[in-house]
């Protein structure tokens, strides 16, 4: 029995060894093909689908906003409610828009297109119901019905956002800051897109805007969902080439933002005689949104020509030039060259490893807690101090922005401004620029200096103090400047929080962790918008629940100034704690510093020897 067991074990050992070396020989000795840099590649190229996923995600995000300011006064008039009740609707709207934990859980169980389908259904049902109430199709619509509808409609954004953001973060795992800046930036720019649609195409009709929200985003998501998918691409380009494509899309996005700003100002200040002009303005905006599709198209043409060259080289390798034997020798030499570039494994160590793995001697440790930078589950992240520091920094950073977004119409009314369309556009465009710029700047400094991204959240909150003071003590003419500063600093919080959370707690369960941190936004809306701003506004309001003058929101923004100071201090603590994590995640910085130190020491040694 003992000899028979030993024989079976030796047979299993030999079979495992043979299979292992067959796989290695198949890797090294299969026909090699030319790569784009003139070398050879044993990997099979894949089409550039990642960029098509990113472009489709941009389209979905561009129509995912909820321009609440444009129809909030209509809802207030139809339902005959006070400011506190209106702010409560805004809180429920924020809870719906950012309650994406269920979407994050289902992301690892369902494909992205299913999440986009659920979002499209919610948008149709929610905004369609709000349109029915606002258009007075129901003679006596209850307030509770509006609460339910205003939760379901904006909740579609959480499904859209989770599906596209997590997918693109995994597809571009080495450019997380850039991807987060693009996608979160277009969420901010979405309000400016709706502003132009509202002013030019819909002619300031809030009911038409609600109907567009019920139909437009579902159509865009249904068209784009076929492209949004995880891509395990092996066609990994060098960082400079990928960065050039990001810069190209970045320039297009900035051009679109500037165009939206100029078009909105023209709509507000110039009266056009021709009815074709509003349609032309909207058409040019849609053309800007289509242009990014040329990036994956050009990428596909490059990939197609490379595939043809590889096929021609492979065909030439199959035809022996000096006999079959000489051709095989040349291919074998090339394969050995490829093999020498890869890390070699000692034969004895490899055999021992595979044997131990097969017999169960090597097992994964269960119950061990991950370290920062590894994949965390939500319950594991909840017991980490860094998680709650990031949560609180984000909470403090988005507070003033949420209050401004939810109350901008009432703030303008208090200052005697009847139309805040241009101010909404200012806030939206600079919100986009903040998100986009923070993604690029943080990516640069995290690679060159291993600087924690959370530093930029603190800097933005320090600058946000000036916007709070402008809203509290400013004049009617400074309202646009305050909205621009607020939008820029508010946008930075989003594009920094997203990659920071993924770098600290991993990408495997990122959807759930990201949506949990996002739940701080409805908490902000409840604490600062409904309770603080709403109660103070009604306290200062006169007849008809209308307040006039800077006193309506002065105390609110002074409190928010103190919140920004707290957030700034917390961001410094968080950045100090996670600095070692970034030095580990981005070791290129330490190598670069070491090389510069060696060069400077060598130069000083040469100078001293020459002296």
Task: Please summarize what this structure is.
By secondary structure, the chain is mainly alpha-helical.
Please work out how many helical segments DSSP would assign. 23
Shape: globular
The CATH superfamily is MFS general substrate transporter like domains
- What's the CATH class, please? Mainly Alpha
Distance between the termini: 82 Å
Mean pLDDT: 78
Judged by helices, strands and strand pairing, the structural class is mainly alpha
CATH architecture: Up-down Bundle
Radius of gyration: 29 Å
pLDDT below 50 for ≥5 consecutive residues: which ranges? 20-46, 342-366
| Main sheet characteristics | 2 strands, antiparallel
* SSE string: HEEHHHHHHHHHHHHHHHHHHHHHH
GO cellular component, one term: membrane
Main location: membrane
Protein name: Nodulin-like domain-containing protein
Membrane topology: Multi-pass membrane protein
């Amino acid at each position: 029995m003992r000899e028979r067991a030993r024989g079976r074990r030796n047979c299993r050992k030999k079979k495992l060894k043979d299979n292992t070396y067959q796989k290695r020989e198949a890797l090294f000795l299969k026909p090699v093909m030319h790569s784009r840099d003139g070398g050879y590649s044993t990997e099979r190229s894949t089409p550039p689908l990642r960029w098509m996923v990113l472009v489709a995600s941009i389209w979905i995000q561009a129509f995912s906003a909820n321009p609440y300011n444009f129809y909030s006064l209509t809802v207030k008039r139809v339902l005959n409610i006070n400011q506190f009740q209106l702010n409560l609707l805004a809180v429920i709207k924020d809870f719906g828009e950012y309650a994406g934990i269920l979407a994050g859980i289902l992301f690892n169980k369902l494909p992205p297109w299913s999440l986009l389908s659920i979002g499209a259904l919610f948008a149709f049902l929610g905004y369609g119901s709000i349109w029915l109430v606002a258009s007075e199709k129901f003679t006596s619509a209850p307030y509770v019905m509006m609460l339910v509808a205003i939760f379901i409609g904006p909740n579609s954004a959480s499904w859209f956002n989770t599906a596209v953001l997590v997918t693109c973060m995994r597809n571009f795992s080495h450019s997380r800051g850039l991807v987060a800046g693009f996608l979160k930036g277009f969420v901010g720019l979405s309000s400016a897109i709706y502003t132009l649609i509202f002013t030019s195409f819909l002619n300031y009709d809030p009911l038409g805007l609600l109907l567009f929200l019920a139909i437009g985003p579902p159509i865009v998501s249904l068209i784009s969902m076929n492209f949004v998918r995880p891509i395990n691409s092996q066609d990994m380009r060098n960082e400079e080439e990928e960065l050039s494509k990001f810069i190209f899309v970045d320039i297009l996005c900035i051009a679109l933002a500037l165009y939206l700003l100029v078009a909105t100002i023209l709509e507000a200040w110039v009266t056009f005689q021709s009815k074709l002009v509003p349609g032309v303005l909207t058409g040019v905006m849609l053309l800007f949104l289509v242009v990014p599709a040329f990036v994956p198209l050009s990428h596909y043409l490059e990939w197609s020509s490379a595939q043809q060259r590889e096929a021609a080289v492979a065909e030439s390798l199959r035809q022996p030039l000096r006999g079959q034997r000489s051709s095989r020798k040349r291919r074998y030499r090339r394969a050995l060259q490829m093999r020498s570039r890869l890390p070699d494994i000692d034969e004895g160590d490899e055999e021992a490893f595979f044997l131990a793995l097969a017999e169960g001697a090597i097992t994964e440790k269960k119950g061990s807690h991950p370290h920062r930078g590894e994949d965390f589950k939500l319950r594991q992240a909840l017991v980490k101090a860094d998680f709650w520091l990031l949560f609180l920094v984000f909470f403090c950073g988005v507070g003033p922005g949420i209050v401004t977004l939810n109350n901008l119409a009432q703030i303008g009314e208090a200052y005697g401004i009847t139309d805040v369309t241009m101010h909404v556009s200012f806030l939206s465009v600079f919100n986009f620029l903040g998100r986009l710029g923070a993604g690029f700047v943080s990516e640069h400094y995290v690679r060159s200096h291993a600087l924690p991204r959370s530093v930029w959240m603190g800097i933005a909150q320090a600058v946000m103090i000036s916007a709070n003071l402008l809203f509290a003590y400013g004049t009617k003419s400074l309202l646009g400047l305050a909205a621009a500063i607020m939008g820029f600093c508010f946008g930075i919080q989003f594009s920094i929080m997203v990659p920071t959370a993924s770098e600290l707690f991993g990408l495997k369960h990122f959807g759930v962790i990201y949506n949990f941190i996002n739940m701080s936004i409805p908490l902000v809306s409840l604490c600062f918008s409904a309770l603080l701003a709403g109660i103070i506004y009604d306290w200062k309001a006169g007849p008809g629940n209308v307040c006039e003058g800077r006193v309506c929101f002065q105390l609110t923004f002074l409190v928010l100034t103190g919140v920004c100071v707290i957030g700034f201090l917390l961001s410094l603590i968080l950045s100090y704690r996670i600095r070692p994590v970034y030095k580990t995640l981005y070791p290129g910085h330490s190598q670069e510093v070491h090389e510069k130190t060696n060069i400077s020491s060598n130069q000083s040694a040469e100078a001293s020897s020459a002296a």
